[in-house]
Specification:
By secondary structure, this protein is mainly alpha-helical. Helices cover 85% and strands 0% of the residues. It is built from three helices and no strands. The two termini are 26 Å apart.
Length: 62
């Protein structure tokens, strides 16, 4: 799960970095916020997947 999370975040981060490089953008607040968002956006997805798995496990055991 951690490897998948890291792969998705790395791909999004690479695309964002390349987009800034191609456009010759400087390091603005918006660009830095975009890079941080690339790292953080998969967290809710991972949370919901783990929550669903845990809920099914608890339902089976009860």
């Amino acid at each position: 799960m951690i490897v998948l999370y890291g792969a998705v975040a790395a791909i999004a981060l690479a695309i964002t970095l390349l987009e800034g490089w191609v456009n010759h953008d400087r390091w603005t607040v918006h660009r830095i916020a975009g890079l941080i968002a690339c790292i953080l956006w998969p967290l809710p997805l991972a949370f919901f997947i783990l929550h669903g798995s845990f809920s099914r496990l608890v339902t089976r055991l009860s």
